[in-house]
Design a protein that fits this description.
With 325 residues, the chain is mostly beta strands. It has no helices and 30 strands. The strands form seven sheets. The chain has a six-stranded antiparallel beta sheet, with no helix packed on it. A four-stranded antiparallel beta sheet has the order 4-5-6-7, with no helix packed on it. Strands 8-9-10-11 form a four-stranded antiparallel beta sheet, with no helix packed on it. β29 and β30 form a beta hairpin. The radius of gyration is 19 Å and the shape is globular.
Length: 325
């Protein structure tokens, strides 16, 4: 049974505090969600990250803005210079600014914590930049170009290098071996590329048509990723050995994956409308999101020790406390 308390914070940023008790395999701990409505209606927030200023920064896919929310729920929004850019992923760069991809705008963007935006056009037209992250050297950023079958590198000065790959790259992470690892969702593979742009390995996902989705490097120096259409969380060593963990909710479409402040792996379930937790030993727990059909998209730990995630369909930002056990 859920108990819901609602109150008002400003003209649009009201929140829900919801305490949920779930019984999946035994009794799971009490869980609290706080939900904030984005000022721009139907903005469809996608990615979110904790900024160097102690706030959370997020992209607004249809709002065409970069948003900022404090841990107390106060919003600021920064419109992008060009309409219809569709910003997707956002990460903190090595220079202390926020870097993001513009999927339709075909640019890499940079925004300072003061809101100053700089954009860098890509030389390949309609390349579809998607994910972006800091590379293994900690000095440059790397990004996937899923439409042009390329992986790009950009320095903090805006110098871009593009490398052709064999299949369409989706998400990417700096691996524990000094290389970059990325998912090939349509090809059902996980691949490795060196920092000099050479693809050295491609591993077939053991579940056919599973749709390898978002990938991170775990604290165990293995690669962990979600299987969107296989409804599983997968672990893969750098030698290509797979272990898969089924998500209890059928047709849940697990999305993004992040390492939580408790040392466990946390993930979103797009159609399951839940947040999942997976220990490194394979114990899985799910928590229902209070907003119906919200499509939780990307989840990241915040500077306040909580987990924050975007609700794409609901155009909200949600904060979730991390259970003590």
């Amino acid at each position: 049974m859920a108990r819901v308390t609602q109150s008002i914070r400003g003209p649009r940023a009201f929140f829900w505090i919801v305490v949920l008790f779930l019984g999946l395999t035994g009794k799971s701990p009490a869980q609290t969600f706080t939900t904030y409505v984005i000022p721009t209606a139907d903005s469809h927030p996608f990615s979110i990250v904790g900024g160097p200023d102690g706030a959370l920064w997020f992209t607004e896919w249809d709002g065409n803005k970069i948003g900022r929310i404090t841990t107390s729920g106060e919003f600021t929004e920064y419109p992008l210079p060009e309409k219809g850019s569709q910003p997707v992923w956002i990460k903190v760069g090595p220079d202390g600014a926020l870097w993001f991809t513009e999927h339709v705008g075909n640019r890499i963007g940079r925004i300072t914590t003061a809101g100053e935006i700089t954009e860098y056009p890509l030389s390949t037209p309609n390349s579809g930049p998607w994910n972006i992250d800091v590379g293994p050297d900690g000095q440059t950023l790397w990004f996937t170009q899923e439409a042009s079958l390329q992986i790009g590198q950009i320095t903090t000065a805006g110098v871009i290098t593009e490398y052709a790959v064999r299949l369409s790259p989706w998400d990417m992470t700096a691996g524990p071996d000094g290389a970059l690892w990325y998912t090939e969702r349509s090809a059902n593979k996980v691949a490795r590329i060196t920092t000099s742009g050479v693809v050295t390995n491609q591993y077939e996902d053991p579940t056919p048509e599973s749709g390898p989705n978002y990938i991170i490097t775990g604290p165990d120096e293995a690669l962990w990723f979600t299987e969107q259409f296989g409804d599983k969380i997968a672990r893969m060593t750098t030698a290509g050995a797979f272990t898969e963990y089924p998500v209890p909710t059928a047709a849940s479409q697990p999305g993004s994956l992040a390492l939580g402040p408790d040392g466990n792996l946390w993930f979103t379930e797009h159609t399951g409308n839940k947040i999942g937790r997976l220990t490194l030993t394979g114990v899985m727990t799910e928590y229902a999101v209070p907003t119906p059909n919200s499509n939780p998209m990307v989840l990241e730990p915040g500077p306040d020790g909580a987990l924050w995630f975007t609700e794409f369909f609901a155009s909200r930002i949600c904060r979730m406390t991390v259970p003590a056990n």
